Amino acid sequence: MSQGPSTYDKGRKERLDLQVYSGGKWYTTDSEYFSLGTNGKSVVNLGHPGTSGIRARVRTSYIDPSSGDNVNTTTYGTWNYFYFSN
User: Fold this and answer.
1) Please, what's the b/e burial string for 26-55 (b: 16 or more CB within 10 A of its CB; e: otherwise)?
2) Using one digit for the tens of pLDDT, what is the confidence trace for 3-13?
3) How confident is the model at residue 68 (pLDDT cuts 50, 70, 90)?
4) Looking at residue 86, what is its pLDDT?
5) Distance CA 62, CA 13 (A)
6) How many whole angstroms separate alpha carbon 58 and alpha carbon 32?
7) Distance CA 48, CA 17 (A)
8) Could you tell me whether strands 75-76 and 13-22 are parallel, antiparallel, or unpaired per DSSP bridges?
9) Which among 1, 19, 56, 86 could bridge 52 via Cys, Cβ 3.0 to 4.6 Å?
10) pLDDT at 28 over 90
């Protein structure tokens, strides 16, 4: 997955939030920071869940100042949805 809500600046990171859908609710399974490339994007391999029927979503965010600087204000990306099937 390749995405990035902000521009490159040395030391800047974006946060990737991963959620899965179960029982009518979205549950956060992981949130992790990734460094931005010089093109302002991160490339993250989500792997595979090993089972089918999984509904998931991810989004990237810039969190001031947790993302490594205080140049921008906190910005949340849009959710991208996935369905894992065989």
Assistant:
1) eeeeeeeeeebeeeebbebeeeeeeeeeee
2) 444 566 777 78
3) confident
4) 73
5) 7
6) 11
7) 16
8) unpaired
9) 86
10) yes
Q: How many CB atoms lie within 10 A of CB 23?
A: 5
Could you give the C-alpha distances from 67 to 26, 37, 40, 74, in angstroms and in order? 24, 14, 13, 9
pLDDT in tens, 45-62: 877 667 788 899 999 888
8 vs 6: CA distance, rounded Å: 7
8 Å CB contact between 31 and 66: no
